[in-house]
Amino acid sequence: MTKSISDGILQSGNKLECSDNTKYFVYADVVNLNFIPLGYSAAQRANVYKVSIDLRLKVEDRHGNVAIDQMIKENTQYVGAGLRSDIEKIYAFEEIGELIKIRTQAVLTKNE
Question: Cβ(77)–Cβ(49) under 8 Å?
Fold first, then answer.
């Protein structure tokens, strides 16, 4: 999830910096994350997952003034082959990460 948020920040035209020159601090707090198996393969392994996430994205300046404080809510569904349910769960998590990246980019671009 951290990589998805970092990619969203970079794609919005901002940069990530870890030094004394840092002007803003970004906090991403996962409030809720749910994996719900919806379907099963012939081998009785979960192959369809619904994933939902509630993430609070907060940006503060060096003095603690809040520039952005927004809840991001995303839902997705992932359909796999059902060979190994743990792998499908990982792919479902990556899918929700891609949606978070796009939403993070949109939030930061809108507030420039």
Answer: yes
pTM above 0.85, yes or no: no
Looking at the chain, the whole-number percentage of residues with pLDDT higher than 70 is 94
Q: What is the pLDDT of residue 73?
A: 94
Q: Which helix (H) or strand (E) holds 4?
A: helix 2-11
Cα(24)–Cα(60) distance, rounded to whole angstroms? Answer: 5
Q: What contacts 24+ positions apart, CB below 8 Å, involve 9-18?
A: 9/104, 9/105, 9/108, 11/101, 11/105, 12/104, 12/105, 12/106, 12/108, 12/109, 12/112, 13/109, 13/112, 14/108
Q: How is residue 75 written in tokens?
A: 């839902």
